[in-house]
Every structure is written in structure tokens, then in C-alpha cells.
Design goal:
The complex is a heterodimer of chains A (667) and B (173).
Chain A: H1 6-14, H2 17-21, E1 29-31, E2 34-36, E3 40-42, H3 58-70, E4 75-77, H4 104-116, E5 120-125, E6 139-141, E7 155-157, H5 160-180, E8 184-189, H6 194-199, H7 215-218, H8 220-232, E9 239-246, H9 257-270, E10 274-279, H10 300-307, E11 314-316, H11 323-331, E12 337-340, H12 342-346, H13 350-355, H14 370-376, E13 409-413, H15 417-428, E14 432-436, H16 446-449, H17 457-473, E15 477-479, H18 486-492, E16 496-499, E17 503-505, E18 516-518, H19 519-523, E19 532-536, H20 540-551, E20 555-559, H21 571-583, E21 587-589, E22 592-598, E23 601-606, E24 611-615, E25 618-621, E26 624-626, H22 630-636, E27 640-643, H23 653-666
Parallel strand pairs in A: 3-4, 3-12, 4-5, 5-8, 6-7, 8-9, 9-10, 10-11, 11-12, 13-14, 13-16, 14-15, 16-27, 18-25, 19-20, 19-25, 20-21
Antiparallel strand pairs in A: 1-2, 17-26, 22-23, 23-24
Chain B: H1 5-38, H2 44-63, H3 74-88, E1 92-97, E2 103-110, H4 113-119, H5 124-146, E3 150-156, E4 165-171
Antiparallel strand pairs in B: 1-2, 2-4, 3-4
Classes of the chains: A alpha/beta (667), B alpha+beta (173).
Chain lengths: 667, 173
């Protein structure tokens, strides 16, 4: 059976460059009995945009509609709905609920919003298990195994009666999804959610029929849910399940990979038409989707699942951002369709842009996981790199909708992230924009930052290439090797100046000596760096620099005044840097200052007065202060100006992107 | 013989901070035990009040041998004892002289207690009341010991979001 817009999309693909370039991604696929025009799926993710009692909001619908438009005729999955009104399954503050008919109007509106974009609507059931109980303040699971992470609620063991009720609740919620008009049904059993809790040896210690020493026995709960849900949906409605192939919980005696792969075969046998393959639990200590994990790293996992005998179509997300990589994986038979989530948070239209041959317009995800960090801290979804994320319901958040009636001649000083972002958004609105930079190329601070290891170059690639492409398309003029001075501003009197001059590395005035050098000098090998290095500053630039120097064989110590090293890195990524520093032998003294610099050593002083010597042939200063020197020139000449990015206050890339975008939108 | 001063000092410093952390946790673990034993009758404020009274009395005892009223700066010396006690408990704290020898200010720039209190579900009101009680008892005990009209008041408090705790210690004329 063809999905509703199958023929329309197939005809459209014929005319689109992306379909020729990525013929496998844009080839049809049949899941169960439903034919889908292409092999793209937006995977479910929570966004905390719904009401606290589970009703869907217009903000969430607008968020989803944007992603539905982006899948270019493929599958678009709404966030997983919790299935019980007591909220034991609710893992996130704004998770949608489908435990009662009162939620039907919102669910229907959501299904319609996805279908209006001519996407195939997918509905997901998600009881969060030991990650749940957000409002109930207690979670439920097969056994009362204590939480490894303090973030989560204590777990109560489900009674036999509660298990049966929970299975029925899944079936009821599934019926509601069907009635709402969704076209595909999906069950989530990943990362520590309820179904995965039952499958796992670590979290399922039951001795009744829902537990046992083999994965076949522990599968009973999952199998019962699959069969009940299957019975609750139309015979021709595909049923997908998301299950973990490799939990990465060996350290707590979790399932082996073989056990996990067996669950795929059993799920298929029980009635699932397709498997979405995932890796890792929230409790596992191995990173799976952060930037340091190389693109395509996990493709061996679906390959292994197929070798294990899985016949049903499989999809996988997890660091698979590039269409060429997905296209090859499909061509090679490694996956059957391409799933993505984080990349479409960063750019809802990413797959559509592939189809239209507009890859330079893609705002790439930098895999920082701030989206996850927000959700676990009860904040609405946001994106490090995409200022419009969660603002989809606000038309005036988009520059194309707020054209200016008063075009101005705007100087943007600095072609770093903030400057580029301000330049293209202002130009989109109809302003005449000129970007100046004292360097011969764009990139600003990221020209240094991209040299840090663990794929930090992506930060530069993503922001600078995107910004330049957008500026060029909108006729922004660039003047490189040009340092804007106060005299230039006074002489030429532009209508407005955006000061995006970034920050400068700074050291205490008393520090003097040949062996005291800036991060810029150290990371670019402009000055000699000794074997023992102290990096002054404990924010992200200092960490990147310390790691780069450690990779060159230096013995590095970080000393910084912040109480938490990497305070400017979001918590869902900061732990990675802590591990990198440890792995590279970098010592870190936070909440400390350099009291004195002597011959071959620095005296470090902790906040409480304790002092000690650290070997230091070279001191690299990585602290930054804003470079806002042009502010006065603008004020003196009565010129409208905006101070943005690091020039306002030194921060991370996200601050620069968001500042720049909003400035371009409002100036 | 090679001696790595950095290693020696930072190892000790880390161990010391570990002990401080453990000491605070122990306090709240006992609090939890008391509340659980009391059951429905439990009033966390009463438990905190009693606990800090016990702490205050015991702490004051350790100050008595070091109190020397023959010195003109005896009040500052007494305040230094309080500073040292809270430093050992993990606070960043210092003392400032008042307008005359009969007045000193003790300033907690940082104190780890509110954070630990939060992680054990204790309110900021309780945290502040407990600390105030401990100091009041110390001062009451010292007043009795020295036969001076010693007083203490809190003018600023971290648990109230005021950025620092400031306490005025003075001898009433």
C-alpha cells in the first residue's frame, strides 16, 4: 500500500538534484505493508514544549511541522507519548501523554500537522521506565535497582498486576494514536526506558515470568506489549520498535551484544515490521552521539545485526549526519533507511536541502548535546547552533518574515561566527551589509579553536562555512585584511555598526617573560613551547589548547579561577572533556590562581590559600577579555551600534550564533 | 631524594577536602536518621536546632583554653577561632575589625553547607537557622565563661541569596 503522497513525491524526486546524487536515500522502501517514497526518518525526541500534564501545545506542533517538512516525504516521528496518567512513565517535564481520550484532540492535531507537510506520520509509545517518574518523583521498573545517576528518581518494582495494567495501557495509547490518524506505530525501548529495563540483566532481577536468566525469558514483557499493540492497530499499519543493539553496560553486567541482537529477532518474530537500532544507555559511560565520536562510527552495529540474521528493514541514527554516508550505507545493505534526530534539531530542513541540492544552506549539528542537557534540566528544547529551534511558532523569528522598511548601510566588524550570523540575517531583511575582518579569512576565534582535538574542527566548519554561504547568497560584501578604526567610522559614517570583534587573550599585567605566551601563539606554533606547560584559564579555549598541546607530547597543567573547569561547556558534553583531560594526563587546578611565576615553575594558589609549585617552562594564557574598542567611536559619532558575541562578553560558539542572529533580526 | 611538592601538597589538599565533604554529609545523614525515627512527629527545624546546640556547646569548649582576656584583642582572637572552625568545615571566611576593639565582623565569602543541605532536601531556612543557632550557642557559652556581654547577629546570609554571610560579634557596653 502506497503512503498518501507517495506518487507525488516520487514524481518530484525525478526533478530534484539530490535524488540523483543520493539515489539510495531517495529510493522507495516498504515497511510492513506501507510504501514510503524515500528512506528518511526523523527520529523521536522529547522537546519539553508541551504542558506539564501532557497536552500538546501549538509550539510543539510547529516544531514538529518544521521537521515534517524537512523529511521530504519520509517518516516524521512525534515525541514519544507516555502511556499512564500517573506519570510513572513520564521522563521529561513536557512529555506528551496518551493515557486518556482527553489527549486525542492534541494528538490528532499533531498527526494532521505532520501529514500536511506530506510526510508519513509516526507515533511513538514511550514509557521511560527508570528514567521516568519526573512528576511522580518515583520511577517504576522490573526491579528496584538503585539509580547510577543522581538525576533520576528512585525505582519501585512493578507488581504483576501493574505489569498487566502497563501492557494494557500501551495498547490503549496505541489505539488513541490510530484514532488520531497516525500512519505508523512505534514503540521505544532504548537508552534505559521501560522495555529496555525488562530486557536487561542489570535492571531486571525478577524471578517470576517477567524475569529470568536468559534474554528469551526477559523478553516476555516486550513481547506481550508488541503483541497487544499489534492487535490494537490496523493490520496494514507498520509497527516499528526501537531497541538497543549494544547497551555498553558491561561494567554493571548488562546484556551482551549477542543477547541484545537476539531481541531484534524476537521483536521481529513477535510482530515488529522494522527495527530502529540504537547504541548505549543513559547510564553507560561510553559516549555515542557526542562530537568526539566520528561520523559513521556505529555503522558496524546494524551490519552486525543483519549478519546475526535480522531480516526486517533496519534504520539507525547516531552520528550519521551526511547524506553521502547514509546513501552508501543503504547501497551496501548496512541499513535500509536513514534515521536522524539531532541534525534535524539543528536544521529541520536538512534532508529537504539535500534533495534540493542546497547543502551549503544546511546548519549542521555540532553534536554538543545541549538539547539533551536542557531536557534533563526541565528546560524547553533549544539548540546550540540553531537560534530558531523551539521558535517555529513565531514567524517574526525568521528574517525572511521581517523585511525592513528602512534599509541601512551596516558595517559588521569581525567575520567570526557572530559577525557572519548578524551579516546574513540583516542582509536577508534588506539591509546593505559589509563585513570587515583584519584577518585574511573568516572564522575569528574558531581559527584557533579548530585546532583542538576531538573533532573541534567541526565547530569552525559548521559555523563559518554556513555563515559565508548565507552571506554570499545575499550579496554581503567582504573586506578582509582590513582593520576598522575609529577614524574609518568617523570618516564614512555607516548607518549602523555591529561590533563583532571577538575577544583577546589576556594576562595579568605583572606577568612578563619570553616564556609567557598567548593561546594563539601556542596553538599555532608561533612561539616555542617548553615540555612543561601551564595553561592559564579553565574555560573551553584553555581546555582545547591544553589538549592540543598534550597531544604534542607536552606535560600540561590547567590553572583557572572558575570553580568548575569547562563551566562554559554544556553539562552533557563537559564530562567528555573531563575524561579527555584525564586520558591525556592533563592536571587541572580549578578555583585557583597563579600567584607567582618563577624559574621553571609557577606557584599556584587555591581559593583557600593553599600554595604549591607546578613545573612550568611555558605559561600559556587562555583567559579572554572582550575587544570592544570601537564602541566609543560609534557613541561619539552617534551611530547605532550593537555589541555581540565575544565582543560583548567572551562565551562559547552558541552565544555568538544566537547573538548574531538576533542582532541581524532586529537591527 | 626527589621530592614532588606539587604532588604531596595537592594530595593532602584533596584528602582534606574529601574529609570536609564527608563531615558535612555525615551531619545530614544523621539528620535524616533522626527525621526518619521521629516519623510523623518530625520537625526538621527542631532537629536542626538541637543538633546545632550540641555542636555549639562542644565547639565553645575547644575555645575556652585559648581565651585570654588579658590581651586587648581577645575578641578578635575569639573571632579567629570561629574563622578557623568554619575554614575547617570548608568555608572561605575572613574576619574584619569593627569600629573599635569591642566589635568584629566575620564574613563567609563562600560556604558549602547550603549546597549540601539542598542535596539532602533541607530548606535554606533550616540551613540558616541551624548555623545561626550554632553561633549563638558558642557566643552564649563564651559569654558565660568570660562573664562578658558577648553578642552576635547575622546581617547578611548566603542561604537568603545575599552572596555572603556577615556576622557582627561585639561586646555590649
Amino acid at each position: 500500500m502506497k503512503s498518501k503522497y507517495f506518487d507525488e513525491w516520487r514524481a518530484k524526486y525525478e526533478t530534484m538534484p539530490g535524488a540523483k546524487k543520493y539515489p539510495h536515500v531517495f529510493s522507495p522502501i516498504t515497511i510492513g505493508k506501507l510504501e514510503i517514497p524515500c528512506r528518511i526518518k526523523y527520529a523521536a525526541t522529547e522537546d519539553n514544549l508541551n504542558t506539564h500534564d501532557g497536552y500538546i501545545t501549538k509550539e510543539d506542533i510547529a516544531y514538529m511541522a518544521a521537521r515534517a517538512k524537512g523529511v521530504a516525504g519520509g517518516i516524521c516521528t512525534m515525541q514519544g507519548v507516555t502511556t499512564d496518567e500517573l506519570k510513572m512513565g513520564q521522563g521529561y517535564k513536557g512529555q506528551a501523554c496518551a493515557a486518556d481520550r482527553k489527549f486525542l484532540p492534541g494528538l490528532t492535531e499533531m498527526a494532521n500537522a505532520i501529514k500536511e507537510q506530506k510526510a508519513v506520520s509516526n507515533y511513538q509509545l514511550m514509557h521511560c521506565g527508570r528514567v521516568g517518574g519526573h512528576w511522580a518523583k518515583k520511577a517504576e521498573g522490573p526491579s528496584a535497582v538503585p539509580q547510577r545517576l543522581r538525576l533520576f528518581e528512585p525505582v519501585e518494582e512493578m507488581s504483576h498486576a501493574r505489569i498487566l495494567e502497563c501492557i494494557d495501557q500501551h495498547a490503549f495509547s496505541a489505539e488513541l494514536g490510530v484514532e488520531a490518524g497516525f500512519e505508523i506505530m512505534e514503540i521505544s525501548g532504548i537508552v534505559g526506558y521501560l522495555l529496555s529495563n525488562y530486557l536487561n540483566t542489570y535492571t531486571n532481577r525478577r524471578t517470576d515470568e517477567y524475569g529470568g536468566d536468559t534474554v528469551e525469558k526477559r523478553f516476555k514483557f516486550v513481547g506481550d506489549i508488541i503483541r497487544k499493540v499489534k492487535a490494537a492497530i490496523p493490520e496494514d499499519m507498520p509497527l516499528i520498535i526501537r531497541l538497543c543493539a549494544w547497551e555498553q553496560l558491561d561494567d554493571v553486567n548488562g546484556n551482551t551484544m549477542e543477547e541484545s541482537l537476539k531481541t531484534y529477532l524476537m521483536a521481529n518474530e513477535a510482530g515488529c515490521d522494522s527495527i530502529s537500532i540504537t547504541v548505549g544507555w543513559q547510564e553507560s559511560t561510553v559516549p555515542v552521539i557526542s562530537r568526539d565520536v566520528d561520523q559513521g562510527s556505529w555503522l558496524w552495529v546494524p551490519k552486525k545485526a543483519k549478519e546475526f540474521g535480522l531480516k526486517a528493514p533496519v534504520s539507525m541514527a547516531y552520528r550519521l549526519f551526511k547524506a553521502e554516508m547514509a546513501d552508501k550505507a543503504i547501497a551496501d545493505g548496512v541499513i535500509d533507511y536513514w534515521e536522524n534526530c539531532r541534525p534535524q534539531i539543528a536544521d529541520p530542513l536538512m534532508p529537504l536541502k539535500f534533495l534540493e541540492g542546497r547543502e551549503e544552506d544546511i546548519r549542521w549539528c555540532v553534536a554538543c548535546n545541549v538539547c539533551l542537557a536542557r531536557l534533563f534540566r526541565d528546560a524547553p528544547m533549544t539548540c546550540y547552533i540553531n537560534p530558531t529551534c523551539a521558535h517555529e511558532s513565531q514567524p517574526d523569528w525568521y528574517p525572511e518574515n521581517v523585511h525592513t522598511d528602512d534599509p541601512k548601510s551596516i558595517w559588521v566588524v569581525g567575520a567570526g561566527v557572530a559577525g557572519l550570523e548578524a551579516a546574513w540575517t540583516a542582509a536577508e531583511r534588506g539591509h546593505k551589509v559589509t563585513v570587515f575582518d583584519k584577518n585574511a579569512e573568516a572564522g575569528g576565534t574558531l581559527l584557533d579553536a579548530r585546532q583542538a582535538p576531538y573533532n573541534d574542527y567541526e565547530l569552525y566548519d559548521v559555523t563559518t562555512h554556513f555563515g559565508l554561504a548565507q552571506c554570499q547568497k545575499r550579496g554581503v560584501e567582504f573586506k578582509y585584511n582590513t582593520e576598522v578604526t575609529a577614524d574609518m567610522i568617523a570618516d564614512e559614517l555607516p548607518d549602523a555598526v555591529v561590533i563583532a570583534t571577538g575577544a583577546e587573550y589576556s594576562k595579568p599585567a605583572a606577568w612578563e617573560g619570553e616564556n609567557i605566551i598567548s593561546l594563539h601563539e601556542a596553538i599555532n606554533d608561533l612561539k616555542p613551547v617548553g615540555d612543561n606547560v601551564v595553561v592559564w584559564g579553565n574555560k573551553k579555549p584553555a581546555i582545547g589548547c591544553a589538549l592540543a598541546l598534550a597531544k604534542k607530547g607536552k606535560k600540561v597543567t590547567i590553572v583557572g579561577e572558575e570553580k568548575t573547569t569547562g563551566k562554559d561547556i554544556n553539562p552533557s558534553f563537559r564530562w567528555r572533556y573531563a575524561i579527555f583531560l584525564a586520558q591525556n594526563g592533563v592536571k587541572v587546578y580549578s578555583d585557583a590562581t597563579i600567584k607567582e611565576i618563577g624559574d621553571g615553575e609557577a606557584i599556584v594558589r587555591y581559593y583557600d590559600g593553599v600554595k604549591f609549585p607546578v613545573k612550568a617552562d611555558t605559561i600559556v594564557y587562555a583567559e579572554r577579555v572582550s575587544n570592544n574598542a570601537l564602541k566609543e567611536a560609534c557613541q561619539e559619532n552617534g551611530i547605532e551600534f550593537r555589541l555581540i558575541g565575544d565582543a560583548a562578553t567572551p562565551r562559547g560558539v552558541s552565544g555568538a550564533v544566537h547573538d548574531g542572529y538576533k542582532t541581524g533580526l532586529r537591527i | 631524594m626527589a621530592f614532588d611538592a606539587e604532588k604531596e601538597i595537592t594530595s593532602l589538599w584533596r584528602a582534606f577536602h574529601g574529609v570536609q565533604d564527608d563531615q558535612r554529609r555525615t551531619f545530614y545523614q544523621w539528620r535524616q536518621a533522626a527525621l526518619e525515627l521521629l516519623g510523623d512527629k518530625a520537625d526538621p527545624m527542631e532537629v536542626a536546632d538541637k543538633a546545632w546546640e550540641v555542636i555549639g556547646i562542644d565547639t565553645a569548649k575547644s575555645y575556652f583554653p585559648r581565651t585570654n582576656l588579658s590581651k586587648p584583642n581577645w575578641l578578635q582572637s575569639l573571632a579567629s577561632n570561629i574563622v578557623a572552625t568554619w575554614m575547617m568545615r570548608g568555608a572561605k571566611i575572613h574576619m574584619e575589625k569593627g569600629e573599635n576593639d569591642n566589635e568584629v565582623f566575620i564574613i563567609w565569602d563562600r560556604c558549602p553547607y547550603p549546597t549540601t543541605a539542598k542535596s539532602y532536601g533541607a530548606s535554606m531556612e533550616e540551613d540558616l537557622a541551624g548555623c545561626n543557632r550554632g553561633l549563638e550557642v558558642i557566643v552564649e557559652q563564651l559569654a558565660a565563661f568570660t562573664n562578658k556581654k558577648l553578642k552576635i547577629e547575622t546581617t547578611k546570609a548566603i542561604p537568603k541569596g545575599e552572596g555572603a554571610c556577615v556576622r557582627r560579634l561585639w561586646v555590649e557596653e
